[in-house]
User: What shape does this take?
Amino acid sequence: MTTASLSGRKVLLIVGGGIAAYKALELVRLLKKSGAEVMSLLTPAGAEFVTPMSLAALTGHPVRQALFMPEDETAMGHIELSRWADLVVVAPATAGLIAKAANGLADDLASTTLLATDKKVLLAPAMNVRMWLHPAVQANVARLKGFDGFHGVAVVGPDEGEMACGEFGPGRMAEPAAILAAIQGLLAGPDGRPLAGRRAVVTAGPTFEPIDPVRGLTNRSSGKQGYAIATALAELGAEVTLVSGPVALDAPVGLNRIWVESAREMQAEVQKHLPADIAVMSAAVADWRVDGVASGKIKKAPGGPPSLALIENPDILAGVSKPGKSRPKLVIGFAAETSDLEANARAKLSRKGCDWIVGNDVSDDVFGADGNAVTLFTKDGGADVWPRQSKTEVARKLAARIADHFKA
Ligand code: CTP
Assistant: This one.
């Protein structure tokens, strides 16, 4: 059995209704002992077997029990809770909960949370042997396992043995120690943190190029996509340095954010944090800066507006992509285009010398928005179209692709 620490990892435990619910309490104890933070959600049927008081005492957090509870929603909304977790565990997972999850039903707190989460779900089924062997349950489990994508469903157990109802066969919930081992495998093992030990440098946001002490040149980048990428890489275990231009976003937890203003400052910080395994240059770097920044505020003059002489900024991405000892193994650029996405993105990829480029159509509601539609072009000619989805989802897809790249 693996003994990996779960320190700092967050588990949301959904306790369904069944005699095995008492084992969920032992599971919480084991999770806490290995360093995990646990929040729990108790279904009405689950509450027939264990009390909210026991779960609250063991987890150290209030227990969520119903969908429409204003006081719960003010603490942490159920959607937020489903995202807060690194892993959602359902133990015991009843036939009813599995059926709801497999069919996208969302008519109570547990099923809604399972549908809303963007994290992997681990099911520990527990039910009567006939129920477990019923083709409907087997089909539901197979359906859940078959859902494609990064956030899959894993199943631990059920075990074979004598059941509380007196029958014998598969259906007993896996022992808490086995569920803990499965959780450790998913969270601390290569599956959960495939980028552990990898260093990444990510640029995000706009740059600001001063004209004088009060004015400057900048652009409409919000930094949301770059921040989401930095977060997604950190979630997969990478050690991330986020070099950020001026944006109105909080620093994501668990990574090192460095504030910069100008392109030259951004370049210096990026270079300082090499070598790295991964570089994702998502910042909207200003192409030009003002030559001869005025030391005092430029005043309006009778002769009309001043003319600004511009000089070209260094190309940070092209610099990072240059062959050499400190070149990251995987360099990814962005191509923000308003037309001819593929041709422009591919031209940029070869001009800058990066390995992949994320082609970003910015002609339609991208700046500051939460959604994005991109195509990932690779040096070997590949193109992966990701239709409009949240910037978080785009980031997670990219992080998963990066993890696959290093696995290969
Ligand atoms: N980039 C950079 N340094 C610059 C300009 C751009 O690192 N001085 C990076 C961006 O972070 C992005 C990629 O290069 O990853 C492409 O940026 P983009 O603005 O689309 O391309 P430009 O080179 O500026 O080309 P153009 O403005 O002509 O489209």
Summary: DSSP finds 14 helices and 20 strands in the chain. Residues 391-407 form the longest helix (17 residues). The pocket of cytidine-5'-triphosphate is lined by residues 203, 263, 281, 283, 285, 287, 313, 315-317, 333-336, 348, 352 (CB under 6 Å).
